[in-house]
Amino acid sequence: MRQVDPVFASTHDRATVAALLGIKASDVSDEGLIQTVSTGRKGNLPFESGVASYCERRHSTVTQ
């Protein structure tokens, strides 16, 4: 069996992710990117489109 290579997509703002999780932005580590990564099983993650939708409603941006 072969695993599909990961596809690195959108990066997400810490404050936006923190708001989605109901925590303070300072509780989210700043040591790396928060990024959507596909492992070839599109649509299997329930939160996959949540960050983009949340950003759109808040007139924020999601970088691709």
Walkthrough of the structure:
- This protein is α+β, with helices and mostly antiparallel strands and 64 residues long.
- It has helices spanning 14-21, 50-58, and strands at residues 7-11, 35-38.
- It is built from 2 helices and 2 strands; from the N terminus they run βαβα.
- The protein has a two-stranded antiparallel sheet with strand order 1-2.
- The longest helix has 9 residues, at 50-58.
In short:
With 64 residues, the chain is of the alpha+beta class. It has helices at residues 14-21, 50-58; strands spanning 7-11, 35-38.
Write the SSE topology:
Layout: E1 7-11, H1 14-21, E2 35-38, H2 50-58
Antiparallel strand pairs: 1-2
Distance between the termini: 30 Å
Global shape: globular
Largest sheet: 2 strands, antiparallel
Tell me the number of strands.
2
Oligomeric state of this protein: single chain
Features:
single chain; 64 residues; alpha+beta; two-stranded antiparallel ribbon; 2 strands; 14% strand; globular
